[in-house]
Amino acid sequence: MSALPRAHELGLIGCHVCGQVCRDTQIEDAACPRCGSSLHRRKPYSCVRTWALLIAAFIFYIPANVLPIMRTASLGDVDDNTILSGVIELWVKGSPDLAVIVFTASIVVPMMKFLVISTLLLSALRGTNWARRQRSMLYRLVEFIGYWSMLDVFVVALLTALVQFGFFSQVEPLPGVVYFGLTVILTMLASQSFDPRLIWDCKEDDD
């Protein structure tokens, strides 16, 4: 079975902003007729920018886990909690649903994003055609969950509001939240910087 023709073989190019399929005019400063963005067969320096953002996000993720993320006070007992100790604190205080949300948003999702984006980058740099369809699905998954990555920060704000209902005497956000927020922003920028079209570039087709 012969391979399907590529877009560049058909003289087509897709806008990486709005997805509009345009005729490839070979003009250096060509723009998308729908959104006006510059047209590129591939995002310039996509892998370099993505690696830089991903490494920076991982660096910020370390203090996000080491530094306390919130302070809870109840009956004169004051505790500064990191992400993991905060999960335990929420569970003990009778909020297992919030504990699960914080654990998923703060531990599971960031680690999955680090792993998936690193896999996409390494496979793209190698030019392999291994599991291209599955890698495309992973990229779409990372983009989707990126919109929900700030749940942990929202939960801390929610806990502050819960004071009015008597769940805690006092809840205060601490510096760990800032580092975690930076981690989320940088991972989102990393996923946006990666050009998914690189997944379909390979050195040889042996399908």
TrEMBL record:
<keyword id="KW-1003">Cell membrane</keyword>
<keyword id="KW-0997">Cell inner membrane</keyword>
<feature type="transmembrane region" description="Helical">
    <location>
        <begin position="51"/>
        <end position="70"/>
    </location>
</feature>
<feature type="transmembrane region" description="Helical">
    <location>
        <begin position="98"/>
        <end position="125"/>
    </location>
</feature>
<protein>
    <submittedName>
        <fullName>Paraquat-inducible protein A</fullName>
    </submittedName>
</protein>
<dbReference type="InterPro" id="IPR007498">
    <property type="entry name" value="PqiA-like"/>
</dbReference>
<keyword id="KW-0472">Membrane</keyword>
<dbReference type="InterPro" id="IPR051800">
    <property type="entry name" value="PqiA-PqiB_transport"/>
</dbReference>
<keyword id="KW-0812">Transmembrane</keyword>
<feature type="transmembrane region" description="Helical">
    <location>
        <begin position="145"/>
        <end position="167"/>
    </location>
</feature>
<keyword id="KW-1133">Transmembrane helix</keyword>
<dbReference type="Pfam" id="PF04403">
    <property type="entry name" value="PqiA"/>
</dbReference>
<feature type="transmembrane region" description="Helical">
    <location>
        <begin position="173"/>
        <end position="190"/>
    </location>
</feature>
